[in-house]
Amino acid sequence: MFTSKIYKKSPVLIQNIFLSTRSLVRKKLRENNKCEQYTQELIAHEYDSELLSKYHDKALNKTIKQARNTVEYYKSYDLDLKTFPFIDKLEVNSNKNKFLSPKKGAVIKGATSGTTGAPLVIPQNFQSVIAEHAFINRDLAWAGFKEGDKRAWIRGDMIVPLEQKQAPFWRYSYFENMIMLSSFHMAPTNLQSYINAMVNFGVQVIQAYPSSIATLAKYLEINNEYYPGEIKSVVTSSESLKKEDKHLIETRFKCTVFDWYGLFERVAAIASCEHGRYHILTDYAHVELLPAGKTEDGRDRAEIVGTNFNNSLYPLIRYKTGDHVILSDEKNCPCGRVFPIVDSIEGRTGDYLVAEDGQKVHILNHIPKGVEGLLGTQFVQKKDLSIVILVVVDESLFNKDQKYKLILNTKERLGESIKVNIKKVDAISRTKNGKIKQAIREF
């Protein structure tokens, strides 16, 4: 909707109406009695280890049984989780239809690219959507959110046309009591207007990409200022939150940051509480932690491997995420919740490119979405800001139209003046930790 010509050319008031109507429809579909009941069930067992364990075991057994009985990929395995192989994005992409259960009702499709830049389309049903929203409700409850609170949203939606150069760089979702601010227009000269807009709206909870809210916190620090309004909390997700950025945000916004780690594959979720501990949500998915060496200071690192509970249409069992956690020695948290604790999460550190106006653009995962035939991407930016996109492709799918779409997506995020070239390669080079950087800047 946000990139359609009708939306982009409409007056701001009409854009607000479009956005609010879209949000109302989504709200009606997701926030029903079933979602509320599920939310309360999740809240009921977070302080009770016995109830949580029973819930987890029941969900895991149900997932394995359904997958074995309905999914072609899993039919040769028995009901013991340990007999299932580890899988990853490449394996799923190579056997897309074999992971699909028989369709019942409406199917919602979404895509993820992650740090490898290879889009993975994940179908889900409404039950999965409702379950996901219930977990979001609980996470917001941890952050102190109450029904009717005013929120700010600073994430990856292209709510303001990229070519717009003057404020307002925000729109309003009236039925959600939310101001939505563009992450694509956060040039230094615009940041004070972002602060003013949130204060004037009376924001109580901020939901944001770490890179977006950290940009505002750094602006306040540079000017030796603090957020002039009263904020209950900041809720971050979709990128790794650095400890120094967390401290800076909490200092400058005078509140606690609640960080959320999740994936569109729905195979793991980790949430931080009011005491700053990261909890593996064992009612969301079954998570295994595979040893992955040690950090430079000798702490144990582990890869996150997950089995999803909440997408029976596309169950993924023992899915290797490629993301890592640093293990913690703590067994109990002052918050009293009984979920396992990890010290920190590695992965998703926001690589960025520089847009035509000099702004740092951290949100890169959206660029490959919708482009068929991509197996991997990496953005290499030259001193003149031109970009070479290294791509590993399926030749049968990645044609001239898909190449044009990838270039168009890049220009929509970074500006029409940016020169973009596509270069096919056999493989994307990896770092010493085995990861692929989304962006490399040669300056």
Share of β-strand residues: 15-25%
**Under the CATH scheme, which architecture of the largest domain would be assigned?**
3-Layer(aba) Sandwich
Major sheet details: 12 strands, mixed
Query: Globular, elongated, flat, extended or rod-shaped: what is the shape?
Result: globular
The number of E-state strands comes to: 20
Tell me the domain tally.
2
Quickly give the structural class.
alpha/beta
What is the number of helices?
10
Note the run of SSEs as H and E: HHHHHEEHEEEHEHEHEEEEEEEEEEEHEE
Helix content: 25-40%
In the CATH hierarchy, what is the superfamily of the largest domain? ANL, N-terminal domain
- In the CATH scheme, the class of the largest domain would be Alpha Beta
Written account of the structure:
This protein is α/β, with parallel strands linked by helices and 443 residues long. It folds into two domains: 5-346, ANL, N-terminal domain (Rossmann fold), CATH 3.40.50.12780; 353-441, GMP Synthetase, Chain A, domain 3, CATH 3.30.300.30. Helices cover 30% and strands 24% of the residues. The chain is built from ten helices and 20 strands. It has helices at residues 5-9, 12-30, 33-44, 49-70, 89-94, 126-142, 191-201, 210-222, 243-253, 400-414; strands at residues 107-112, 120-125, 151-154, 170-173, 178-181, 205-208, 233-237, 256-262, 269-272, 278-280, 285-294, 300-308, 319-327, 341-346, 353-354, 360-361, 374-381, 387-393, 420-424, 439-441. The strands form four sheets. The protein has a twelve-stranded mixed beta sheet with strand order 4-5-3-6-7-8-9-10-14-13-12-11, with helices on both faces. Helix 8 (210-222) links the parallel strand 6 and strand 7 (233-237). It is globular, with a radius of gyration of 22 Å. 37% of the residues are buried.
